């Protein structure tokens, strides 16, 4: 007979779900914002990312900045949409957090004691 889990109540399940959703949302945002940041670091000179004012940019940099801003907005919108979809998907499940526990099985004389 399986022992009842003291951490498995309806109230705790809702807390676990909220916790999981917060973690998943943070990971999504960290992923796509981190990618954008790395891309800007590597290719930002193409659109004058180090320049503060538009009048300091040449025509190619201005055109590239316009393209970058459109692509960046599209990536952010897509990332946010996917994060929302993942959170909606999580709502379809019951969530039990195993609380980083480890269960040990004690073996005595070659037989399991459970």
């Amino acid at each position: 007979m399986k022992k009842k889990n003291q951490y498995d109540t309806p109230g705790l399940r809702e807390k676990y779900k909220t916790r999981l959703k917060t973690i998943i949302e943070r990971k999504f945002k960290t992923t796509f914002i981190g990618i954008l940041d790395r891309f800007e670091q590597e290719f930002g000179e193409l659109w004058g990312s180090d320049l503060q004012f538009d009048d300091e940019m040449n025509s190619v940099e201005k055109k590239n900045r316009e393209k970058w801003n459109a692509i960046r907005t599209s990536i952010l919108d897509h990332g946010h949409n996917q994060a929302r979809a993942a959170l909606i998907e999580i709502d379809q499940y019951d969530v039990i957090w195993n609380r980083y526990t480890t269960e040990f099985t004690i073996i005595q004389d070659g037989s399991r004691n459970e």
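Residues 10-113 form one domain. The chain has one domain: 10-113.
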